[in-house]
Structure formats: C-alpha cells, structure tokens
Write a structure and sequence with these properties.
Elements (H helix, E strand, L loop, with lengths): L13 H9 L5 H20 L11 E4 L3 E5 H4 L2 H6 L2 E7 L6 H6 L1 E5 L13 H13 L3 E6 L5 H13 L4 H11 L7 H14 L15
Parallel strand pairs: 2-5, 3-4, 3-5
Antiparallel strand pairs: 1-2
Helix pairs in contact: 2-8, 2-9, 6-7, 7-8, 7-9
EC number: 3.1.3.48
Family: Belongs to the protein-tyrosine phosphatase family. Non-receptor class dual specificity subfamily.
Keywords: Hydrolase, Protein phosphatase
Length: about 210
C-alpha cells in the first residue's frame, strides 16, 4: 500500500523522506511522530535565546551526573577534572587522545553520523554504562563530534529507558537543556522504535502530548 503524500516544504526533504520510506520502511504513524519531534525542536530554538549557544562547557542534563557535550570537551582534561567527570561515552568516529584514555574511563562507540547507521544496537550497552555511573554517584560526559546528533541519540535512549515513558517528553526535556540536540531522522526513527519496544506499544498510533516532568 502506497504511503500518502507528505508535505516536505517545512520539516523534511524529499530525499530523506524517500530513504525513510524505502530503506527503513517508516509507517505513517512513525512519520507523524517524527514530524512532531522535529517541530518541537524548531519551536524550542525559536523561543530560546541565541546566548544559550556556543557551549564553552558541556550541558548539564541531570545535575551531578549526566553531561552532554562535544569532542572539545572530552579532550579538555582540565575541564573534565574541574567538573569532577570520571567517565566518558565517545559516540563518534574520532578516537580520544591517549592522555584522556589514561586518566578517564572511556566507552567508545565508533560510528558515523549518517543515515541508516544502526545506532540502536548500542542502546543497551550505553544505558548500562550510564546506569552503573549513576548508581556509583559518579559523573559522565556523553559526546560526539559536535554534540548534536549521535550523542543526543544516546542521551535520549537513556532518558527514555530510565526517566520518561515517551520520546516526545524525553526530547522536550533534553532540548530545554541543550537547544541544539538534534538526532538525524534515521536516529530519531530508531528511538521511536526503541520506545515502542520498551513499553510494548504495538504502534505509535498517536503522537503523545508533551507534558513536562
């Protein structure tokens, strides 16, 4: 059955839509949910001040525990020590310097920020890593190259499993703390399916309303 035409003028390009439909077999309900998430991001960026950008330090996602940043943060030993961060999840194709590896507990998820890359295969690994850090009351930095797509996906997977029962609510929370958090469309779709798996939802029949916790 052919999918109904979707307007691509605002939130998604025709090429991306074609890939979602033919490579990832996105359903109409999943596509509607994805559009809600992208619209939420645009709305948050409009109402937040530009001064929130230009992160000299990683964003604090959960006080005294979870930080979200970029490569430059992970390579700054003085910054990490100053924040008392002892653990790092590197979600990029760039290995960290040996000096960082020698002094911090690093989990490296080596992957590209590209359409169709299977990032969901690492969700349980990164969630377990983060949960162990949380139980020990120890701080962790999750980063990728720019702190936009790959690292945001990993942070959202954690929030979804341990703190929120919907991706929409988790993303609303994250964007308030890191305004440029923006998984690519295929990563978002994998998160939508992860939500369905976690909460045994047969389908994303209706995008949930966004309620803050």
């Amino acid at each position: 059955m052919a999918m109904k035409p979707v307007s691509t003028s605002v939130w998604i390009g025709e090429l991306t839509l074609d890939k979602l439909q033919h490579e990832m077999h996105v359903s109409e309900n999943e596509l509607a949910y994805l559009q809600q998430l992208v619209n939420l991001r645009s709305k948050k960026r409009q109402i937040q001040s530009p001064k929130d950008a230009g992160y000299a330090r990683p964003s604090v996602i959960i006080d005294n525990f979870l930080y979200h940043g970029e490569l430059k943060h992970a390579e700054n030993k003085y910054l990490l020590n100053g924040l008392n961060i002892g653990h790092i999840i590197n979600v990029s194709d760039c290995p960290l310097q040996q000096d960082i590896l020698d002094h911090f507990n690093v989990l490296w998820i080596n992957l590209d920020d590209a359409f169709g890359v299977d990032i969901s295969q690492y969700f349980e690994t990164t969630n377990e890593f983060l949960n162990i850090c949380k139980k020990k009351d120890e701080k962790v930095l999750v980063h990728c190259q720019m702190g936009i797509s790959r690292s945001s996906t990993i942070v959202l997977a954690y929030l979804l499993k341990y703190h929120y029962d919907s991706l929409a609510n988790a993303y609303d929370y994250l964007v308030e703390r890191r305004r440029f958090a923006a998984p690519n469309h295929s990563f978002f779709l994998q998160l939508i399916r992860y939500e369905r798996k976690l909460y045994e939802k047969p389908d994303v029949n209706k995008p949930p309303t966004i309620d803050k916790k």
